[in-house]
Amino acid sequence: MACGIYSTTDSGSPMKSCKDFKKVFIHKDPVDMRRGINGLSELVQSSLMGNLMDPHLFVFSGRKRDSIKVLYFDRSGFAMWQKRLEADKFPWPKKHTDLVVELTPEQFSWLLDGYDVWKIKPFSELYFEKVS
Q: DSSP alpha helices (H): ranges in the chain?
């Protein structure tokens, strides 16, 4: 699983995983990646991304799309982590008209692995009244 903040214990088990969060909000427009917790918190509030205290992840990227920052509230304070890619770019929403795009925690995990979640389409659901 790509979405995990790993502890420094020998077990290496994640302290937090994507499943610990209800929603993931992607800020579609590029942000200044020099922003820290305070600057990104202000952006969450001004962009109406959701309540900062809810169990959600708030995700930001710069113009190059080679790194992301993730902000969340963890019971006693804010936490932020960053992932920088050495050779690739993160897939990012392009055709969405909204400033904020919502993903499921599972989709966010795929995004961290490099999958373009906006191009993935499941099979259509079929409904039958009777089967012969």
A: 37-46, 105-112
Classify residue 4 as exposed, middle or buried by CB count within 10 Å of its CB (0-12, 13-18, 19+). Answer: middle
Beta-bridge partner residues of 72: 79
Q: Where are the domains of the chain?
A: 4-112
Query: Which pLDDT band holds residue 15 (cuts at 50, 70, 90)?
Result: low
As to burial, measured by CB atoms within 10 angstroms (0-12 exposed, 13-18 middle, 19+ buried), residue 61 is buried
pTM to 2 decimal places: 0.80
Strands 23-27 and 56-61: parallel
Q: What is the mean pLDDT of the chain?
A: 86
